Each structure stands twice: as structure tokens, then as C-alpha cells.
Amino acid sequence: MNSTDDNLYTSSELLHESGIHESGLAEAERRGLIERAGVADDTIALYDREALRRARHISALLQAGYAFDAIQRIVADVGFPWEKDRPSLRSRERVYLTVGELARRANLNVRTIKYWEERGIVTPQTRSEGGYRLYTLHYVLFCNLVRDLQNFGYNLDQIKEVSDLFRTFFQLHTDLGALPASDAGEQLETMQEKIGELFRRTAELKEGIERWEGLLNLKRSQVATMQKTVEKLLGDRDAPEDSDERDTDESEEGLAPITDDGARAPSSHA
After folding, report:
1. Which domain holds residue 46?
2. Rounded alpha-carbon distances, angstroms, from residue 162 to 8, 192, 205, 212
3. 3-state DSSP helix/strand/coil percent for the chain, to nearest 5?
4. CATH number at residue 34
5. Mean per-residue pLDDT over the chain, rounded
6. Quick one: how far is CA 151 from the chain centroid?
7. Which residues of the chain have pLDDT under 70?
8. In whole angstroms, what is the distance from residue 164 CA to residue 85 CA?
9. pTM
């Protein structure tokens, strides 16, 4: 599943590529001269090629001796040199996740996601210039769906087929003319067939889950009854002997032995 964005840069990569200082970047952002393309893991700022071009231009003006007030007036009057129209603000930042954060949110390990990537099931939305894998938030749901399919008994080749259809769906959903009409119609028909197959599969699983829930509830009750019986047996075994038997034994210990003629010998206590 993939819809690759333009190359993105972390703040450290942008500083390295543009030559602007960290304080200069912060001031340019504060004044609205440079805007972030998004953020990864809620803390890592990301910038696109436009931000890189602006950072390079601002860095050159700063090195030429221009102060930020002057740079801001120039940009306000004529914009940046490559812009035909006045710059417009972004509607919103895009939120990205690194592979580690995606793994944490999806309750997976990083190796699993990288293996799915090797199999062509999950691919990064984009990468930073430094090679960081970056994913948008909907990849959390997608990873959960892949795991669901594994629990449904699908192998990775079958899951890749579903993943490919997801990619095509998002492509057509964004632009229905992205494929020739005949190809688009064929792909959409395949999607309908796969959706029907998944509906049948989930119905079978629901029936199986209901059977197992009934069986497990019954066996839990039966096992609990057996446990109580075993506990009672163990309690009876460990209980002290009956007091009447102990009294009889004690009274017999006080009698003298019987002689050969049937008479009881005098007690030693007499």
C-alpha cells in the first residue's frame, strides 16, 4: 500500500542541505517564510523540496547581509524568485510515523513491518532524504487489517493481492482517470469479487467463533464443578480422624491383655 509523496527532509537534513543555521530556520518558521510539510511521531519536523529551496534562498540572503525584517519585506513584495504567483499557506501539516512508532501503535515489531515491506504488502508513504521510512496514520489501521487476514488463514501471497487492490482503490479514488477505463473497470470488478469473498470468509469465522464461545463457556462451567469436587475430596482426605475412633483406641490402650484361659490379666495400674 503506497502513495509516495515528494521527498521529505528532517530538520537536521534540511539544515545540512541548505546551509541555514538552526536559529535562522526557527526564525524563518516563526515569520511564516518556511513551513513544515508534516511531523513524524509528534516531534520530528518534516520539510519538502519547497521548504529546502526557501531555506537555501534565505540562507544566501542572510550571508549577503540582509536582516530578517528586510528578507520578509522582499518576500512580501515579490515572493521568492521561482514563484509565479504569491505563495499560499498549506491547509494543514501531514502527520507521519516512523517505522518504530508505526510498530508501537499497531502492536507489532519493526521486523514484521520490514518483512511485509520486503513482500510488497506494506511500503512507506515516503522516505526522508536520510532514508527514514515514513508512514501516514492510516497505516496503523492497514497493519491491523493485514494481521486480521493472517488470523483469517490468508497466506502472505493472498494478503499481497488484497494489498495491491487497496493501492489501486486509493489511486482510482483520488483520480478515476488514473487508469484507462477498461483497466479501471476490470480492477473494480476484481475488488467487488474480493469483497464478496471476504464477506463469506468473515461470516464463516463468526459462526466458528459462536460455536467456540458456546463450547468454552460450557467447558468452563464443567471444569469449575470438577475443581470443586476435587477440592472436597482433598479436604476429606486431610481432615483429622473421627473423635469416637480416637476415644475407642484410647480406652483399649488402658485394658490389660487377655490370658490363654480367657481371663483378663491384672492391670499393671491396679
Report:
1. 9-78
2. 28, 12, 18, 28
3. 60, 10, 30
4. 1.10.1660.10
5. 82
6. 15
7. 1-6, 84-93, 240-270
8. 38
9. 0.54
